[in-house]
Amino acid sequence: MNPREYLLSTNTDNFEERSLALFHHQYQNVSVYRSYVDLIHRNKPKTLREIPFMPISLFKSNRIFDQQKERVDLHFQSSGTGTLGRSQHYVADKQWYDESFSLGFSHFFGPIQDYVVLALLPNYVDQGDSSLVYMVDSLIQQSGQELSGFLLNEPTSLLERYQAATSQGKKVIIFGVSYALLDLAELNMNLSNAIIVETGGMKGRRKELTKAELHAVLIEGLGVDHVRSEFGMTELLSQGYSMKDGKFQVVPWMRILIRDPYDPFTLFPNERSGGINVIDLANQHSCAFIQTQDLGRIEGDGFYLEGRFDDADIRGCNLLVNP
Q: CA within 20 to 30 Å of 122's CA: 23, 24, 154, 287, which one?
């Protein structure tokens, strides 16, 4: 199966069929998922909404992997420090991840070659087991721009590269952890022509802020009209983005559903808040059907994040830098 062709050809007409086919494959070949499905007696779904979603916490205590695959191409770990440890995602075929985030970027922002990519994140040497760092490092390479690079704790270099890029008529996109972007905002660094993508993550560096509060500070301090956010996690191979006003959208091979927070087997209608379930058809060889520990609601063509379950561990995929 060609990942690029599969992802590009996935749409609303075939999403349910492909989801059910992938469920049956993963039920047969991913032992942890099969055990969970058997435990809850839901192994014969006939519609997309009947497919069982596996609790994301199982990635912390189990190896979620397709037993038909003989090797692991990539191994990612979250930086979470919960009682069960770090989430582990074993990727059997790196092409699925490479194609998913590359096609996802172009879906939301256009060709990567049009951008200088600046990253306020640890570099690949420091955090090579982070899926986010792997993704941004790959986008930096794909951009083909000498000005692209990792510039955490280098505000002067970042400003110089930004100014050089804009003077050459190039687009600039900046991926950054929240506290590093706040550091720039406090310097009143004018980045008005850049696309700012915050990836979350205070991790004790600063007072925790809501998304709305964070974005308001960044908009004022960086001189931009709005701030984007990335929705991603170690356990997924695809991402969503909020392009404006905190409303997230996902790529065609993903789907968001909302579950009753008190009954994980009941799905809510749109515009009602609950737990977020994710279908990620790029997760061909682990588990594509995941109960996250995020809260949110679907509205129109997108969804809003509304927090975390009270007993949830802090998700580590966006908390990349140790204090």
A: 287
